[in-house]
Write a structure and sequence with these properties.
Number of helices of chain B: 11
Helix content of chain B: over 70%
Number of strands of chain A: 0
Strand order of the largest sheet of chain B: 1-2
Structural class of chain A: mainly alpha
Distance between the termini of chain A: 58 Å
Structural class of chain B: mainly alpha
Oligomer: heterodimer
Chain lengths: 205, 296
């Protein structure tokens, strides 16, 4: 097992609060919401497991279990159980990364008998290949044909969220605001301005 | 300087800026050393990005040392030591891609330019032969991508996904070459999406010129459609493109965050989170769009 502190990216003498924050930050990054239906799902699950273990290890060994143990969300595999359908082998193909085979199978189904699931699977294969625009179209069709289906809805939401730069804005926290430096330089500037006009704001300089 | 994938300097730390420049200089030096000054024309920020990713994913630690630059001898820059495998790899990629780009240009350009190209062609052909023998795999990847691209363009496809596929696939292979397991998967995805992003932004950048010259561009008919809507057409078109690019970048970031990188993480974060957005804003804010809008 890797050094749990390294996994969370904190130093060994970090406070419990810092560790919890680091954990929460990483958990949000690897959250399955960001990856649902994508090709990286398995890796993100693995990562999630890794940070879960690291977090547990640190907290247990520090003996601060009283702190409530943090707000870990169980990374239970959201395997959508689909009832038996003709598409199960296509799902299997997509899952194992054989997209060309999946497309061939899907294209063989005549246009008039294509269901919402067909559009969803077509979209998933395209999404995993990186054909994002076609995938969005197909997810959209799937959703409009079967508006109640959560699986289709999640895939579409994921794409729509990304379109407005969702992942980028939530992961990148810029500290904007007024720092100590800003206040000092502001004061010095104000002093200079006052002196230009004959007055003085900070008498000592 | 050329290239779409570059860092957003105002947000770059000074130490990272020095490193970034160092990698840029190392690529330039290695190009000169191995292929001579003609090949140095292929230097771009995109190649620097390739070198950065390759360096940061590899386990070896790159050593930098100060050395003088041939083109600006008064200034010393930090350069990677000779014979760094990843820099060498990127340089070979650059030369092979330059060669195919040149051939592509010969096809598309007018009479005078064509003569100029034929004049320099033998030199590049020699360089290409050298690169080809040292990296046959890359040669195959780039060559087949160019053939596929020509085929797709001849069909005049309207699907951006289809149009972007060949070059995306090529970059995906260049980035992930030599890795295995999860890392390969992540680098492939990252490379594919960056390649896709470059293709789309390039198509957007060339769109107005392509319309004038009658060249192929996947967005011509879409722009026409938006133009018909009248006054706000162009800005609606840009909003649409922004969505397409955002989606690509976002997917790319997801892969990036899962990657375990040894070095340069801050620089790469800067490039992917801010640099790409900055390039997009620059491309979209150019005056030609305004002129086009007025002409309607």
């Amino acid at each position: 097992m890797r050094n749990p502190y390294e996994v969370l990216g904190v130093s060994e003498n970090a406070s419990d609060e810092e560790i919890r924050r680091a954990y929460r930050e990483l958990a949000r990054k690897y959250s399955s919401d960001n990856f649902s239906g994508g090709p990286l799902t398995d890796i993100s699950h693995k990562k999630m497991k890794e940070i879960d273990e690291a977090y547990d290890y640190i907290i247990l060994n520090r003996g601060s279990r009283s702190g409530g143990g943090g707000s870990r969300q169980g990374s239970s595999n959201n395997q959508y159980t689909s009832s038996f359908s003709d598409y199960s082998d296509i799902r299997e193909k997509i899952k194992s990364g054989r997209y060309d085979d999946a497309h061939t199978l899907l294209d063989g189904i005549p246009k008039q008998s294509r269901t919402a699931e067909w559009y969803y699977l077509k979209g998933s294969a395209q999404y995993r290949q990186g054909w994002l625009e076609e995938a969005a179209k197909n997810f959209n069709t799937a959703c409009s044909m079967d508006p109640g289906n959560e699986e289709y809805r999640a895939a579409l939401n994921n794409i729509n969220n990304s379109r407005s730069g969702g992942y980028r804005t939530t992961s990148q926290q810029t500290n904007k605001g007024c720092s100590g430096c800003d206040i000092c330089s502001g004061l010095i500037c104000a002093d200079c301005c006052c002196e230009c006009l004959g007055g003085d704001l900070i008498p000592c300089c | 300087m050329f290239g779409y994938v570059k860092a957003y300097k105002p947000e770059l730390k000074l130490k990272d800026y020095e490193l970034y420049k160092g990698v840029y200089c190392s690529v330039c030096k290695q190009l000169g050393r191995k292929y001579g000054p003609l090949a140095q024309l292929s230097l771009s920020y995109d190649i620097t990005f390739l070198a950065l990713i390759r360096l940061s994913a590899s386990s070896g630690c790159p050593h930098f040392k100060a050395s003088r630059c041939f083109y600006n001898p008064l200034k010393k820059c930090n350069c990677c030591e000779k014979n760094n495998e990843e820099i060498d790899y990127s340089v070979d990629c650059a030369v092979i891609m330059l060669y195919y780009k040149l051939i592509d240009n010969i096809k598309d350009s007018g009479f005078i330019k064509r003569i100029a190209f034929y004049f320099v062609y033998p030199f590049y052909s020699l360089l290409h032969r050298k690169a080809k023998t040292s990296r046959p795999q890359i040669e195959y990847v780039v060559k087949s991508a160019m053939e596929e691209q020509a085929e797709v363009e001849n069909r005049r496809t309207q699907s951006i996904d289809e149009a972007a596929h060949p070059s995306s696939k090529a970059l995906s292979a260049l980035l992930s070459n030599g890795y295995e397991g999860d890392k390969k998967l992540l680098l492939e995805r990252l490379g594919y999406l960056i390649g896709r992003w470059i293709y789309i932004i390039d198509a957007a950048d060339d769109l107005l010129e392509d319309i004038k010259k009658g060249n192929y561009n996947p967005y011509i008919s879409l722009l026409d459609e938006y133009n018909k809507r009248g006054f706000s057409g162009i800005s609606e078109f840009k909003d649409y493109l922004t969505g397409v690019l955002n989606l690509t970048v976002d997917e790319c970031l997801k892969a990036f965050e899962l990657l375990e990188l040894e070095h340069f993480r801050d620089i790469l974060t800067n490039i992917l989170y801010m640099g790409l957005e900055n390039t997009r804003l620059k491309v979209f804010s150019e005056e030609r769009w305004l002129k086009h809008e007025k002409s309607i």
